[in-house]
Specification:
Blueprint: H1 2-26, E1 32-36, E2 43-47, E3 53-56, H2 60-87, H3 90-94, H4 99-108, H5 110-122, H6 128-146, H7 151-156, H8 165-177, H9 181-195, H10 198-202, E4 249-253, E5 264-268, E6 270-272, E7 279-286, E8 289-296, E9 304-306, E10 310-316, E11 322-326, E12 329-330, E13 333-339, E14 342-345, E15 347-355, E16 358-368, E17 371-372, H11 379-384, E18 389-393, H12 402-411, H13 415-422, E19 430-436, E20 441-446, E21 450-451, E22 462-463, E23 473-474, E24 482-484, E25 490-493, H14 515-525, H15 536-539, H16 546-555, H17 567-574, H18 586-606, H19 608-614, H20 618-629, H21 647-666, E26 679-680, E27 682-683, H22 693-697, E28 699-700, E29 715-716, E30 724-730, E31 734-737, E32 745-746, H23 765-769, E33 774-775, H24 780-786, E34 789-795
Parallel strand pairs: 1-34, 3-7, 11-22, 26-30
Antiparallel strand pairs: 2-3, 2-34, 4-5, 4-25, 5-31, 6-30, 7-8, 8-9, 9-10, 10-19, 11-18, 12-13, 13-14, 15-16, 16-17, 19-20, 20-24, 21-23, 27-28, 29-30, 32-33
């Protein structure tokens, strides 16, 4: 026994020593000195208790250089993934199984667009945003050359090439691709239009319904120059190794509704969960400038952030900025399409795609007058038609100015400068939320909006044979959706439909029905003494008021005897207020019952594959209330049977199936069917898709109050398994009161660092899941007093050692 004990102790000792050695080789350096050639002066970096760097520099160049260095130290592999997605080079690093993803993004045109945008970017001279970007990139490359590369490169047998400004534009292009709702939705809607009777589509919310909640516009008075007048100056794919931007909430409350008498600002961007999480927080300080921001990997300027005088955040606008045109090839010439009274050429180019461990492949991309042909890279399109279908996408029509825009957002000194910066963003569509120390609140929809002919339904494939379905022009930015200092005393956006524009257009999009917006608006309007502490309850709320109405409409139609033996869960569902508390049993039955009801309704017409696609679109969330409550809908009948099924039959059958499955899954006692038993949350690392690396790199988090369309949206895929894996949610939660900006708070889903050996890899995961916040420090004395780690980046001229 002694020998066995000593042997086990020896193995344990070797494991500890081995881990210490590996940790030393790969862990980030948060303390000490590093001498770097590119600095003009020394920079001091104080890390707070959560690993957030507070960078003190003597000039703007050194501030952004230092940001690039520390950002790469914590998130270099995330930067690698982001630039490879945007440049279509994932297969080069991760292997042949990512080849289809590379083909998709290359066909869509993001790498081509990045090259175009970058060529114009490089021609700029002496602009502060270009100088700051160049400094940031130099900092990233300095870390690649001088720092400890993360362990992922060792495991993959690779080393990173230097970062370039074209990489930054590739990342911006990927961000602009966002949630790809048009690609998920339009082929499905087109198929429905072509194969089903109109009565089927009447029950779906393909377009915004009168019952949905819209964001009110409040257009400001303007000067002759167009500036705001103000006396006070008052945002296949499952293979992606990086998350998609999906939604978001943000609201800004004016002084008339706050206890402090100053603006209260909140933002929580909804993004696919991953490890590391998407945002990197950093505080940069140089003479006359102090900015605290949330940064995307590889992008120098915060997309969300604040100074002591202004704050801004994002939600996805969800506007429709992509159309698909079905072309007709000239029977006599396969290299041109029929167009108007003549023909239009099909252009072709060959791109080489490198593949890990294999020879590069030649990939042909063909483009019509409307854009790239997508049949080969979007299977749903290829199955629907043999005709070429082209993607017309606003983003690739002009070079991006996102770097200039985000620099100006983070450096704006008043509301007019803020709006000017917002107007530079042409895509993706973003709701930019704003508040400032002067008491101004605002919301702008940032996007270049095409004016489509009145007859065009942008959710179905358009006719590529003529110019009759093509846009007729562009809406001026001043007519975009916006609200500046409204009388209501708040602005809010939750990915829902903006109200009619000043030009009379009700702009189409892939908007959510407005459940979150309605809840936010009702709660805020009920008080005039909101505080930074009291508003957190709304930001953490898991209530959806529509779900109980759906549930009751289903309960009312079924035979009560079906609930015999399951009375507790029926009572819970009847009295449900729409919350998703972990000890509640109502949502456990509701989502299971909802799934089987929809499946019995729709899978016979759509087929299983398209039914699952339906559950991944905005159509699902927008259409459920109407689908469930419409008595004479054709969806109730099963087209594969001779008899005609009714609403009652389908809902009863779905209930019987659901109760039986839950009994087998959770036991006969329905009192124990608590929500916490069927919800899981795991933040997956790009390498965590393969066992046993999932145990090493993925972050398993405590159970959260998963839900559909509550303010604290923690989304999952509706399915029949009865296990709901939370796939997305707030990528941060920010609360800021301008009465004391230095006391603003936030939280990240896992941690600040993407380095496995950092203490900050997952130190916020439990706090996030349990609804806690931590400070966003800006006070210099507090930062330096509380910091346990001080990293000094020193110029070579100050180093007296050989």
């Amino acid at each position: 026994m002694k020998k066995i004990l000593f042997a086990l102790l020896g193995v344990f000792f070797l494991l500890i020593v081995g881990f210490q050695i590996i940790s030393h080789l790969y862990s980030p350096k948060y303390h000490g000195e590093i001498v770097l050639d590119e600095l003009k002066s020394d920079a001091d970096i104080f890390y707070d208790n959560y690993g957030i760097p507070h960078i003190y520099a003597e000039n703007e160049h050194d501030a952004y250089f230092s940001l690039g260095f520390v950002h790469a130290q914590d998130r270099l592999f995330q930067m690698e993934m982001m630039r490879r997605v945007g440049s279509g080079t994932l297969a080069e690093l991760l292997g042949e199984e990512l080849l289809d993803v590379d083909k998709f993004f290359r066909t869509l045109g993001i790498p081509k667009h990045a090259t175009w945008s970058n060529s114009l970017w490089e021609s700029q001279i002496d602009t502060p945003w270009k100088d700051a970007t160049d400094a940031y990139i130099a900092g990233v490359n300095s870390f690649i050359e001088n720092g400890k590369l993360p362990i992922e490169y060792t495991l993959l047998g690779s080393k990173p090439r230097p970062f370039t400004s074209e990489d930054v534009h590739s990342i911006i292009g990927y961000m602009s691709f966002t949630f790809a709702m048009a690609m998920k939705t339009d082929p499905l809607v087109t198929k429905m239009v072509r194969t089903l009777a109109p009565s089927y589509l009447e029950v779906l919310s393909i377009h915004t319904l009168p019952s949905h909640h819209v964001i009110p516009n409040n257009y400001p008075k303007r000067t002759e120059e167009g500036k705001i007048q103000s006396d006070k100056l008052l945002s296949l794919l499952d293979k992606l190794p990086v998350p998609l931007l999906e939604g978001s909430n943000s609201w800004v409350i004016s002084p008339q509704r706050t206890s402090s008498g100053e603006v209260l600002f909140l933002n929580d961007t909804h993004i696919g969960f991953a490890q590391p999480s998407v945002w990197y927080e950093a505080h940069i300080i140089y003479p006359d400038y102090s900015y605290y921001g949330n940064h995307l990997a590889g992008v120098p300027f915060g997309l969300v952030g604040h100074t002591r005088t202004h704050s801004y955040g994002l939600t996805m606008f969800e506007n429709d900025d992509q159309d698909f045109y079905e072309e007709q090839v000239d029977p006599k010439n396969a290299n041109q399409t029929i167009y108007n009274e003549g023909f239009a050429p099909i252009k072709s180019r060959i791109e080489k795609i490198p593949v890990k461990g294999k020879a590069s492949i030649d990939f042909e991309i063909r483009e019509t007058i409307h854009g790239p042909i997508m049949n080969d890279v979007i299977p749903e399109i290829g199955k629907l038609t043999a005709n070429p279908v082209s993607s017309w996408w606003v983003y690739v029509l002009e070079p991006t100015r996102a770097l200039e825009a985000t620099y100006k957002l983070s450096h704006a000194s008043h509301i007019q400068e803020m709006e000017a910066a917002v107007s530079l963003i042409h895509a993706p569509g973003l709701n930019v939320m704003y508040g400032d120390k002067q008491g101004n609140i605002a919301w702008w929809a940032a996007a270049k909006l095409p004016i489509r002919p009145k007859h065009v339904n942008s959710k179905v494939f358009l006719d590529g044979r003529t110019d009759g379905d093509e846009p007729e022009g562009w809406i001026p930015f001043e007519e975009n959706p916006m609200s500046v200092n409204p009388e209501a005393g708040f602005v809010a956006s939750a990915n829902n439909q903006p109200d009619t524009l000043s030009n009379g257009i009700f702009y189409p999009g892939y908007y959510y029905p407005g459940d979150r917006w309605d809840r936010i608006a009702k709660v805020i309007s009920a008080k005039t003494d909101w505080t930074q502490e009291s508003i957190k309850e709304l930001q953490l709320e898991s209530i959806n008021e529509n779900h109980p109405i759906n549930a009751k409409s289903m309960i009312e139609v079924v035979n009560p005897d079906l609930f015999k033996g399951y009375e507790p869960v029926r009572a819970s569902l009847e009295n449900w207020k729409g919350d998703h508390h972990l000890n509640n049993i109502a949502p456990t039955l509701y989502y299971k019952w909802l799934f089987h009801t929809l499946k019995l309704m729709m899978s016979d017409e759509l087929g299983q594959e398209d039914f699952e696609s339906f559950l991944n679109t905005f159509l699902y969330i927008r259409s459920v209330p109407t689908l469930l409550r419409t008595e004479n809908s054709p969806w109730w009948n099963n087209v594969n049977t001779e008899q005609e099924e009714t609403r009652r039959e389908i809902i009863e059958n779905a209930l019987t199936i659901s109760l039986e499955e839950l009994k087998n899954q959770l036991g006969k006692n329905s009192k124990k069917w608590t929500w916490e038993k069927v919800v899981t949350l795991e933040h997956e690392h790009p390498l965590g898709a393969k066992k046993p690396l999932d145990r090493i790199f993925n972050v398993k988090a405590p159970v959260v109050e998963a839900n559909e369309e509550a303010v604290n949206k923690l989304a999952f895929q509706l399915n029949g398994s009865g296990i709901y894996k939370v796939k997305s949610g707030p990528a941060m939660r920010i609360v800021l009161d301008f009465a004391n900006v230095e006391s603003s708070e936030s939280i990240l889903p896992t941690g600040q660092s993407g380095n496995l050996f950092s203490h900050h890899y997952k130190d916020q995961a439990e706090m996030y899941s349990t609804g806690q916040y931590r400070p966003q420090l800006m006070n210099e004395s507090t930062i330096k007093k509380e910091s346990r780690n001080n990293l000094k980046l020193k110029t070579k001229k100050d180093n007296h050692h050989p």
